[in-house]
């Protein structure tokens, strides 16, 4: 059989979703949007190849880097730090000389930015310790670093990790997120060829996009009017981004909550305002790892996402209640396909039979959006082996 016939069969099999396991993911090509939720077992990290080759990293978590606390299960294994594995992953996905046009930290927690511990090595210039985002940035150049800034409810002054991050960021081009804007994260190389592509800053620091123009509404009451127990948490300040490509919509929002604690005020559901702004969505990253307080029924019923990516690392991810809501077919019709990066054994035991409804219980989760955004396919890659072979293929799904 001629080689191009084989290639044609391979393309056909891919289009049908009948992709052979144990193959490598075919490389990114121009016009395609690739979203990789990387499984490190120690926090969130998503690497995106945008249609013109612009690259974006959302978070680089390394909870308790190099220590046994908190309880984690490093993937593929403990031979490298989480940051080291993220670097390896990006090198494999990009080939050649990796670079990051943008890196965004959704908020200042260790499972999203890294964590300075006694074992964190120093960078070559000695300015900072290497963990999570600072380790990635030490190995891969970052053109623009975006976070929620130092002004609104900054972390405690004695937070070693944040102080270390600021020392690292002092040598980079750092910007504070501009909530509501679609002009801060843009295609860097050939934007005019992909006019339907957009990254919208939906939320940060309680400023939530209204869905009209670049306008935002501040959903937190004046801080001075709030009791100490009711102050917005770090999670509530999370950055949320919507990525749109033609008909395709994706949302990622760090650890923003949606179900306030019993007796807590309703404004603490950041998800509620976000859902009103973004509406129906194709793929969303499950907020706060699917713990007890995200993925409200209102949020789920408004987004109606057929595909949900659940970045889990702790045995509390996801909670039984949140997963039950995500899978609730009464909230909206069609698929409720949930893909989990690192589902721990104790979690499986507590979730019980609902585990069988998951589309994946471990792996790097890759969303490959076809040129123009009309369809997308989900690839689950092996996170236990170093070469990330394809474990399963799902779709193609048609964008809403
Ligand atoms: Zn988190």
Which geometry do the CA atoms define?
A: globular
Q: Output the structural class.
A: alpha/beta
Helix content: 10-25%
Strand order of the largest sheet: 6-5-4-3-2-1-15-16-17
Would you report the number of β strands?
17
Strand portion: 15-25%
Q: Tally the helices.
A: 9
The major β-sheet equals: 9 strands, mixed
C-alpha Rg (nearest Å): 20 Å
Can you put this structure into words, describing what you see?
By secondary structure, the chain is α/β, with parallel strands linked by helices. The protein has 9 helices and 17 strands. The strands form 2 sheets. Strands 6-5-4-3-2-1-15-16-17 form a 9-stranded mixed beta sheet, covered by helices on one side. The longest helix has 14 residues. Bound molecules: zinc ion (ZN). Zinc ion (ZN) binds next to helix 3.
List the helices and strands and how they pair.
Layout: H1 3-16, E1 33-37, E2 46-49, E3 55-58, H2 82-94, E4 100-104, H3 110-113, H4 133-139, E5 142-147, H5 160-169, E6 174-176, E7 197-204, E8 207-209, E9 216-218, E10 240-245, E11 248-252, H6 270-278, E12 283-285, H7 297-303, E13 307-310, H8 320-326, E14 337-340, H9 345-351, E15 364-369, E16 375-381, E17 390-398
Helix pairs in contact: 2-4, 6-7
Zinc ion binds at residues 109, 111-112, 255, 289.
List the main descriptive attributes of the protein structure presented here.
400 residues, alpha/beta, 9-stranded mixed beta sheet, 8-stranded mixed beta sheet, 9 helices, globular, disordered N terminus, binds zinc ion
């Amino acid at each position: 059989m001629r080689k191009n016939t084989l290639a044609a069969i391979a393309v056909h099999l891919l289009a049908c979703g009948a992709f052979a396991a144990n193959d490598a993911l075919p490389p990114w090509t121009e016009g395609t949007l690739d979203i990789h939720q990387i499984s490190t077992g120690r926090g969130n990290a998503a690497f995106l190849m945008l249609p013109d080759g612009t690259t974006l990293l959302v978070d680089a978590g390394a909870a308790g880097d190099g220590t046994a606390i908190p309880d984690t299960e490093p993937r593929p294994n403990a031979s490298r730090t989480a940051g080291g594995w993220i670097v390896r992953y990006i090198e494999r996905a990009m080939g050649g000389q990796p670079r990051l046009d943008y890196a965004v930290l959704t908020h200042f927690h260790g499972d999203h930015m890294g964590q300075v511990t006694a074992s964190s090595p120093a960078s070559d210039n000695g300015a900072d310790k290497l963990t999570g985002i600072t380790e990635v940035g030490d190995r891969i150049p970052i053109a623009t670093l975006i976070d929620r800034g130092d002004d609104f409810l900054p972390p405690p002054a004695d937070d070693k990790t944040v102080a270390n991050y600021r020392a690292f960021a002092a040598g980079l081009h750092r910007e504070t997120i501009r909530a509501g804007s679609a002009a801060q994260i843009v295609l860097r190389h050939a934007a005019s060829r992909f006019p339907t592509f957009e990254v919208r800053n939906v939320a940060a620091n309680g400023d939530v996009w209204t869905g009209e123009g670049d306008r935002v509404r501040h959903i937190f009451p004046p801080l001075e009017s709030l009791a100490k127990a009711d102050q917005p948490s770090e999670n509530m300040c999370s950055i949320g981004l919507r990525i749109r490509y033609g008909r395709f919509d994706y949302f990622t929002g760090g650890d923003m909550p949606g179900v306030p604690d019993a007796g807590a005020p309703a404004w603490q559901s950041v998800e509620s305002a976000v859902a009103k702004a973004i509406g129906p969505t194709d793929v969303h990253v499950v907020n706060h790892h699917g713990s007890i307080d995200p993925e409200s029924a209102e949020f789920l019923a408004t987004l109606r996402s057929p595909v949900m990516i659940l970045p889990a690392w702790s045995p509390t991810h996801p909670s039984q209640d949140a997963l039950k809501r995500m899978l609730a077919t009464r909230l909206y019709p069609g698929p409720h396909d949930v893909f989990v990066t690192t589902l721990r054994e104790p979690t499986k035991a507590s979730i019980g039979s609902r585990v069988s409804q998951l589309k994946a219980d471990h792996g790097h989760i890759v969303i490959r959006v076809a040129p123009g955004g009309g369809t997308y396919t989900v690839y689950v890659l092996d996170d236990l082996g170093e070469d990330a072979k394809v474990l399963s293929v799902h779709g193609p799904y048609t964008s809403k």
